[in-house]
Amino acid sequence: MKLADRSVVVVGSGFGGLSTACYLADAGADVTVVEKNEQVGGRASVLERDGFRFDMGPSWYLMPDVFERFFGHFDRRPSDYYGLERLDPHYKLFFKDGDEMTVTADREATKATFEEYEDGAGAALDAYLDEAEETYDIGMEHFVYTDRPRFRDYVDWDVFRHARGLTFLGSMQDHVAEYFDHPKLRQVMQYTLVFLGGSPKNTPALYNLMSHVDFNLGVHYPVRDDEEDSPGGMGVVVDGIAEMGAEMGVEYRTDSEVQSILGSAGNFRVEVEDGYLRSDFVVSDADYAHTEQELLPPQSRQYDVDYWESRTYAPSAFLLYLGVEGDVDPLAHHSLVLPTEWNDHFDGIFEDPAWPEDPAYYLCVPSQTDDAVAPEGHSNLFALVPIAPGLDDDPETRQRYREFVLDDIAENTGVDLRDRIVVEERFSVSDFADRYNSTRGTALGLAHTLRQTGPLRPGHRSSEVPGLYFTGSFTTPGIGVPMCLISGQHTADALLEDYGE
């Protein structure tokens, strides 16, 4: 279908917005992307200070097949815009009892490592990953790439036939326990739930597919092929998608916060700080709740305040972006620091919100792979502690927790950063709310609980305003860069189905 000579304003330039813009421009629409901040990318912003370059948001390039499919729709390839370096090791784990584990790209080596913890765990890993691969193949084809926004869309023999092989009910915690007894091996198989904004107790077992993503498809790092000594990272992917969109005619307007969305199909008026934009259609990649509660008049809202207050939100985060003198060995490009017992941390996010006293957290050191992200003789590092959305993060609390995190890193990895920090920036709950208009300061959106999966997530179409659509992590298929790219296609398809020629 086509949208020849029809205009669309896309509010927000996260991966969902950038993706939707590309699909609609390819269909012939005149697309303008309006971005609140100084750069496109949404949460995938880039922070540059004194020769250091930090990915502020996503830092794992996972599911390369989704990116291939996305660019392939437009007869292009990711390699037309950026290169990829496969990381080996994938990541390193530091357990707080002094134990360490390295997960490499070598399946046999990983199986041998698992066997060191539990007899038979190597074979169990093979069985688990075989199931995860099957779940991935079926789930992606029939429940991710195929949008099923309504319950009646599941009343289909094809759905029933393929769903028989999937585990929809039950938690990831229980599912992993069927394969592994050792608590550390269970943690290794469950940590990827962080990418979905959930916990082992509230994420459906369906998401065992993430282990296929991790172990089989691998972890990659984007690099800029066409420029020597130019830093890589997820910002390179943002630039590539935006460049492709521009080639198809997409216009980008940064530093242009949307104040309101008025009108309906064929006659929208999008208010920005310096006036109004007229368009036939509007797609919002801004925070869904913010769009409904702040940008739309009351009569145009699908959901009331009680609905948004009753949702389960993915974690926020406490982040330290650090430029450090010298090296930070033995940290890997991706490192995880895990307490022996992590249920208390997850409970402090989803059950009884509080700053974690014994946190599980993530350390990203891209300078272990990419010399260009830090000045010579320095390291680039950020620490990310998942925390409950909505926590009070006043300056005193941030300072206290900063000291705590630096102490914890030194104690559990052996890397003392304190006297070597030359650049430091902090980012937490209130920053997510201020910079991204994020509800409760969530870093990701709606968590992937059983009650917030598939048709139970907010829809791509507004039920109240004809011509208004939504994309991004609040919608299907959900959280994560690859999912947001796919969400962009679902949103564009819905608009084309409704109004395409």
UniProtKB/TrEMBL annotation:
Name this protein carries in UniProt: Phytoene desaturase family protein
Keywords (A to Z) from UniProt: Carotenoid biosynthesis, Oxidoreductase
Pathway: Carotenoid biosynthesis
GO process annotations (BP): carotenoid biosynthetic process
Residue ranges annotated for the Amine oxidase domain, each copy included: 16-496
InterPro entries reported for this sequence: Amino_oxidase, Carotenoid/retinoid_OxRdtase, FAD/NAD-bd_sf
Organism expressing this protein natively: Halorussus aquaticus
Any one Gene Ontology molecular-function term assigned to this protein's record: oxidoreductase activity
